[in-house]
Specification:
The protein has about 500 residues and is of the alpha/beta class. The protein is about 35% helix and about 25% strand. A 9-stranded mixed beta sheet has the order 10-9-6-13-14-15-16-17-18, sandwiched between helices. The chain has a 5-stranded parallel beta sheet with strand order 3-2-1-4-5, with helices on both faces. A 4-stranded mixed beta sheet has the order 8-7-11-12. Helix 4 (about 80-85) links the parallel strand 2 (about 55-65) and strand 3 (about 95-100).
Length: about 500
């Protein structure tokens, strides 16, 4: 499928510079159509057919992803796939991706004899953007035409009605752009062995108390449940450390624990898994725990035992010392805002990290607020959308704009934005033009808790061993998909990842 679909019409897709050189050699009439073309619909087809009837060569330019502002999660279809969809049409001769916000510069460069716009752009009053474009076209002797249309179709309305499922196409497109092969992904896992990772963050004990509903009281709105059993899982930054160990890394974990029953539980589990742990025991606070009461598959109540007060200077100094004496290939700061990371600690902790280390920070804030931009100049940051919008005070921007603002404010090199069931969005900081989207790879959702932890672990290890950001994120996404298919927070092993890669390869060869 990859060969037939992704490459069959790529010869029609040209950069503006390539297009300019080609067209200079052809003394024939040209017409340009410009738009987003997020979903190609009947209105687009009529528009393109009419445009082609006016000239010998039809060129279609599409707006680059980062300039589309029609919705938070738009474009739905990434620019390379949008270009491919248009190139597959027989009526279209060339497609180009416009890497600027408006097509005026492209008109000046290509100088098409005609510039075609849809009927709706001239239905009532000429839009100011269209007026500016008309002025450019007239300046070199061209002509702007408006295609007839008695029915106005809308990509936005079609997408809002029902999102087209393009998960397979998105994955294949990202793999082709970055030269990712399935065999390479499998071999990558062998390189994780003995990479030294130091994880610093809050330990969380997740308790799942299983119960069945036996009724409610008549006089008060009290739900009565019958206790069945309680499952205890290690979560928070502690499960990040365990994911990394399960992936093959040599892991050190620094955390704070209360002087209570969970302290011994955590230390024992880490020693069993042969993970070095630096526990800072504080008798003044409990080990953070969250008890979810689950009845008939529904979480009806959650009881938290936490002390979110910032840790004091002495604890911060201990954490900083552990970072300095532990020689690592990578340091991961896993922020859950339960005391370790705060305004008074982040800067000192970050300064303790050697410049030779890969620096990674994630934010898994659920009921509290953190600020991912506190982690300056990191190699990769992993915020979720909620926190990204909060720290930038931005509820409305598109995901693409949000990520680029976040990279600029944090001065970080790369970013992976976690979008839950929508997957993720990645941006390379040293080349903000390049971004990519990957879907969720969960086939049977049981419990989404912990998806971000496994995403972080496998993305980090893959990037540390030389993968491009997109390849690293793909491995991380597969790990996140596995984590969601199990109840409770369980470390994702390499064998599970291999099975998931094989499953994906089978699914994509349709």
């Amino acid at each position: 499928m990859e060969k037939n679909f992704l490459k069959a019409f790529s010869f029609k897709i040209k950069t503006p510079n390539e297009l300019s050189k080609i067209l200079k050699k052809k003394k024939i009439k040209k017409i340009l159509c410009h738009g987003n073309f997020d979903v190609v619909h009947p209105g687009h087809i009529r528009h393109l057919l009419y445009a082609k009837s006016k000239a010998d060569i039809l060129i279609v330019s599409i707006t680059a992803d980062r300039f589309i502002k029609k919705g938070v999660y738009r474009p739905h279809i990434p620019q390379n796939l949008r270009a491919l969809n248009l190139a597959a049409l027989e009526v279209v001769d060339y497609v180009t991706i416009d890497e600027k916000p408006k097509p005026g510069w492209l008109l000046k460069k290509i100088k098409p004899e005609f510039f075609a716009k849809g009927y709706e752009y001239n239905a009532d009053k000429l839009h100011e953007d269209s007026a500016a474009e008309m002025k450019i076209v007239n300046s070199y002797g061209g002509e702007m035409i408006f295609t007839p249309g008695d029915i106005i179709y809308s990509s936005t309305n079609l997408i809002n009605e029902k999102l087209p499922n393009i998960d397979k196409e998105k994955t294949l497109s990202v793999m082709q752009e970055n030269g990712i092969k399935f065999n390479t992904l499998k071999k990558k896992l062998n390189k994780f062995k003995n990479k030294k990772i130091h994880v610093i963050g809050d330990t969380i004990i997740d308790v799942y108390t299983r119960a069945s509903v036996i009724g409610g009281q008549i006089k008060t709105p009290t739900l009565s449940v019958l206790h069945q059993k309680a499952d205890v899982y290690i979560g928070g930054a502690a499960i990040v450390a365990q994911h990394l160990k399960a992936a093959g890394a040599k892991v050190t974990f620094t955390t704070i624990l209360g002087n209570d029953e969970y302290k011994s539980f955590v230390i024992k589990k880490f020693r069993e898994k042969k993970i070095k742990i630096n526990p800072i025991i504080l008798s003044t606070r409990p080990t953070t725990s969250k008890n979810a009461i689950i009845a008939e598959g529904h979480r009806i109540l959650k009881i938290d035992k936490v002390d979110n007060q910032p840790v004091n200077r002495e604890v911060i100094d201990k954490i900083s010392k552990y970072i300095q004496v532990n020689k690592s290939d990578c340091v991961v700061l896993s922020d859950f805002r339960h005391g370790i990371f705060h305004k008074g600690s982040v800067n000192k902790i970050c300064k303790s990290i050697s410049n030779k280390c890969l620096k990674v920070a994630d934010s898994q804030v659920a009921s509290r607020w953190g600020n991912i931009t506190d982690f300056k100049r990191f190699d990769i940051i992993f915020p979720n959308e909620r926190e990204a919008r909060f720290c930038l005070a931005d509820q409305d921007s598109s995901i693409s704009s949000l990520c680029r603002r976040l990279l600029k404010d944090s001065k970080c090199k790369n970013l992976i934005l976690k979008l839950g069931e929508k997957g993720l969005f990645g941006v390379k900081g040293n080349n903000a033009k390049y971004s990519f989207a990957l879907p969720s790879y969960t086939t049977s959702l049981k419990d989404p808790v912990g998806a971000g932890d496994s995403l972080l672990a496998y993305t980090t290890l893959s990037f540390l061993t030389g993968s491009k950001l997109a390849e690293a994120a793909l491995l991380g996404s597969l790990a996140a998909g596995i984590a969601c298919e199990h109840d409770g927070n369980i470390p994702v092993s390499q064998n599970k990842i291999l099975d998931k890669i094989n499953q994906l390869e089978k699914n994509l060869n349709f």
